[in-house]
């Protein structure tokens, strides 16, 4: 096995830029690794070997011409199959979009290309990003590299598994209720949900517009920051994009210093039922570690967070019921039952019934219900008020502290099939991550050890205010550095080799 | 299509028994260069699906960004309609499935319109009627379906349809009136006058070309009847998509007669949408809805709220043009024309053109004469609007000037206009190329007069003997000899002089 | 008491253009009932004095200039369509009219 796949993205970028190794070599090493692990983890919906090598050659040519390359030029990246790509199919892991070839690139896609990153393929996800296990993919479930009988989390499970299995150093994801942080936590890697509006949603197939946020996956904090910086920033094609510079995330990741910082421990997310013992243990140790590194920690109460999960499961389905209405068999995608006698309405209903999986149907109907006249105020309207309360809780908290911390998920990776027909149990996986989606602020998950009862990774969530993304990286990098010193290397070293 | 078997009640009788209540919803397509939420062009009549992009096709992942000019135009319309402008408002999604709507929701506004609570005064039969404006909001248009197969090309009975999304996403301003009561027998005319006034207003603001026949202004009319002396409004019907002023008036009149007929027979009005048929002047029922529509409106999460800056709003208010009714009164006084002539010019959409022609130096009477006469005839023949004729007010003014200075007579002027319309150049170029300048050389004209007298000795004799009316034939001869390029009055004068009689 | 009846679920399916089987309707009715009962908790704290938030962040007035930008060619637009005729999207017959 090539040693190249063990390198960090930062190292690979430096080596390609200095000519130590070619982008083609780097890409080929990762394509080989994908071929090796893919039969076991099923992280990809589409591997674009030819296109990837072509992109890599272009980077090598640019270098040969003496062009200065960016820090990630020639570095392979796996792209969640919810971003449009002109040269690869885009399906959102749904049958309704099987084989769809978009005529345009998402802004994130375009920026990856502009940064010279090599897109090696499109990764698996829960259909339309609805889920926490990647089992809702219409094509196949992805498996957790730590334990192939377990889920890699979701919805960005394909991206997380690919990074954790050393198939790629970097991957993109989207986080609507925890879909980056939760899979990062349960696969032992780093994942960030940037500030809402900090990364463009243009070309990201919408699940819940007011929550969806593109973000990076990597095996370490600095790499995540580099990718974050590469595709973030203002986009005039997205009205909700913030017209401000990207926070200095790379600088913060290099700084890795928490001395004097005030860290709040969210009281509501360490008490209560449903938390695995080993998860809480690793979390408590991480808090102690932060103190030992010079941070001041205090307990912070955010009473409205108890209502975040129900509010989320009204707002997200409401928006999705409307966003997914466009999949109607008229202009693109699947068409079922058009026998010349059926009406457009009938063909729409047959196509949608055949093209959407059960979780998508469930959420569409739930959202349709919550928005219906007569129910709007009690459900969608009330959920929007909870959203206000949650934002107020954050605001009050950030008057007292610089960052908040909690476990990323209440439990480690669960078994495939375990929660698939129990939606309420599945939804609990996002308990700790959802408040930041509702309030739009930044958050990251970094590995903080293994739960002793199952030897599976636990994630530490670090939450910062809106546009305070750099604080996530600063604290995350400090924790990472201290833990790696303690462990003698990254947590992933502990993963059973594939 | 079902034939209505309802018995109509004659309008006058209906008006004795019932009081109509009207409500109008008017959609105006804004004349922006690009669409409401994307950069696609808005040109009318382009080949199908040539003005589309991921956004207006509703492709997965695409996002809308609002057109600044459309927002500004809507606020200007609201201000011109004496509305309050929202301090803060949002777009909303109106959710329903329909193949001509790419996202299966329309981005519109719901309970937070950009402009609300205004009015406009319209004149009918010398009476001023104040019409309350409930709201003015902004939304996007849909694509256009063509129904294929079946007997009529109508939606019902078609085998399938084809859709062109060029129009999808064009900005539409919806203007909704408050209920209009107390207009009695004037109701149909009031409805028409209101739409005409809106049309003039849009034109004055320069926000839309308001071509009703192209659908850039279309109107839905709600009508209900209340028994005279009653207090409770009746059930209303909504007649959709009226696309001419005449249709608005006829549809209201028909609905009044139809509803009165039903009520008189002890029937019940069904709340429904109806379609108007130009050919018969009647309305028929649209699909009666088994279940009430539930549009599940909610704030559009892909667009951020609009909070118009107050200073900016005041600036827009200060820059509003003169209201059309005020302007019409002013021009009528300046031009000294009758109510009837002014109304005729308005109906022909000639007021702007006449005004521009006068501005370019023509006397008002001359400007009106050419636009309402020869040019209106030409427009009519070619099925074009006056403004679409390939001639500018400046060119018409130049023709007026050439006539006034005696270089053209009316007949030659008509030929000059024909030449300009045919693309032969400016009036002066046409005069030059066609050799149309009047024969003003006295010597040349005198020679022709002599020749004509010589050739028509008998007629000349009659004139000499005092039968002056016969001189007309000699003038005709001169005109014929000059191919119409003589000044007929001067020719007549010369003839009479030479024959020794005074005219 | 159940929060949602099977008939209501059938109505929701119709509104959402989902041709569900009877079996699916039964299955979803049970699950939706459970979920709705759980999420209804939001009403506990949603008092009248709290303004609703439709967006994550308080941005306003994001507009684009009224400029024409290149879009798709008709070939690109129609490329992925299930059926095309005369450069238009061909769709099954449309019943009645709405809105
Ligand atoms: Mg409307
Ligand atoms: Zn467009």
Question: What would you note in describing this structure?
Answer:
The complex is a heterotrimer of chains A (498), B (503) and C (99). Chain A has 498 residues and is an alpha/beta fold. Chain A is built from 16 helices and eleven strands. Chain B folds into three domains: 11-299, no CATH class; 324-434, no CATH class; 442-498, Arc Repressor Mutant, subunit A (Orthogonal Bundle), CATH 1.10.10. Helices cover 38% and strands 18% of the residues of chain B. Chain B is built from 16 helices and 15 strands. In chain B, the strands form three sheets. In chain B, strands 3-6-7-10-1-11-12-13-14 form a nine-stranded mixed sheet. In chain B, a hairpin with a 4-residue loop joins strand 13 (273-277) and strand 14. In chain B, helix 1 crosses helix 4 (245-264) and helix 3 packs antiparallel against helix 4 (245-264). Chain B is elongated. The mean pLDDT of chain B is 92. With 99 residues, chain C is of the alpha+beta class. Chain C has a domain at 6-43: Histone, subunit A, CATH 1.10.20. A two-stranded antiparallel sheet of chain C has the order 2-3. In chain C, helix 1 (6-15) crosses helix 2 (22-39). At the A-C interface, helix 10, helix 11, helix 12, helix 13 and helix 15 of A face helix 1, helix 2 and strand 3 of C. Strand 9 (160-164) of chain B pairs antiparallel with strand 3 (88-92) of chain C, so a sheet runs across the interface. Bound molecules: magnesium ion (MG) and zinc ion. The site of magnesium ion has 3 residues of chain B, from loops.
Write the topology of this structure.
The complex is a heterotrimer of chains A (498), B (503) and C (99).
Chain A (H helix, E strand, L loop, with lengths): L8 H10 L4 H19 L2 E4 L1 H16 L11 E5 L26 H8 L3 E6 L33 H8 L5 E6 L5 H7 L2 E4 L19 E6 L2 H11 L17 H7 L6 E5 L10 H16 L3 E5 L7 H16 L20 H12 L2 H14 L5 H24 L2 E5 L15 H5 L6 H6 L2 E10 L4 E9 L4 H19 L11
Parallel strand pairs in A: 2-3, 2-4, 7-8, 7-9
Antiparallel strand pairs in A: 1-3, 4-6, 5-6, 5-10, 9-11, 10-11
Helix pairs in contact in A: 2-3, 7-8, 8-16, 10-12, 10-13
Chain B lengths: L10 H7 E12 L36 E2 H13 L3 E2 L6 E4 L9 E4 L6 E10 L2 E14 L3 E5 L11 E5 L6 E7 L9 H19 L11 E11 L9 E6 L2 H20 L8 E5 L4 E4 L12 E2 L10 H9 L5 H12 L3 H9 L3 H9 L4 H19 L10 H12 L5 H12 L5 H8 L7 H14 L1 H8 L6 H11 L6 H11 L5
Chain C lengths: L5 H10 L6 H18 L23 E2 L9 H5 L5 E2 L2 E5 L7
Antiparallel strand pairs in C: 2-3
Helix pairs in contact in C: 1-2
The structure holds magnesium ion and zinc ion.
Organism (chain C): Thermopolyspora flexuosa
Protein name (chain C): Aspartyl/glutamyl-tRNA(Asn/Gln) amidotransferase subunit C
Subunit structure (chain C): Heterotrimer of A, B and C subunits.
